[in-house]
Recover the amino acids of this structure.
């Protein structure tokens, strides 16, 4: 089944994040596919905010590759940005499998750079920019 959420503007992004979390409940591995500037980090920030993370704590881990946040209930959330990864070994060197096997929520940006090691059960969501500037998030389960 294909799912779709439209984010009309930044005012509605938290509602979209709530809807996304509700529809993907039970899925801990989520990979966001989107072109540069489509809103991967912005949507990840909204997801974290909805889960109780201080939004000031959320930032793109482009240079660190991974950031860890604490949800409102104290559970960890791992936020990956594989933009700078050029070899699978680089992802393995940061302990990729330890994170994804932890059972914690793992949100991945630029997963196409490590596609060969992303687990099959990962929810693959696409973010696209619509002509009117809104964003469309789609995924299939």
């Amino acid at each position: 089944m294909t799912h779709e959420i439209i984010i009309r503007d930044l005012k509605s992004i938290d509602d979209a994040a709530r809807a996304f979390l509700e529809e993907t409940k039970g899925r801990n591995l989520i990979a966001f596919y989107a072109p540069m500037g489509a809103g991967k980090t912005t949507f990840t920030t909204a997801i974290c905010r909805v889960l109780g993370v201080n939004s000031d704590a959320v930032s793109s881990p482009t240079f660190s590759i991974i950031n860890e946040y604490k949800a409102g209930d104290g559970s960890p959330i791992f936020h990956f940005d594989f933009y700078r990864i050029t070899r699978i070994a680089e992802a393995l060197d940061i302990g990729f499998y330890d994170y994804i096997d932890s059972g914690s929520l793992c949100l991945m940006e630029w997963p196409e750079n490590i596609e060969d090691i992303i687990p099959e059960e990962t929810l693959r969501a696409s973010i696209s920019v619509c002509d009117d500037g809104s964003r469309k998030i789609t995924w299939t389960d």
Notes: The CA atoms of residues 57 and 141 lie 31 Å apart. The first strand starts at residue 2 and ends at 7. The radius of gyration is 14 Å.
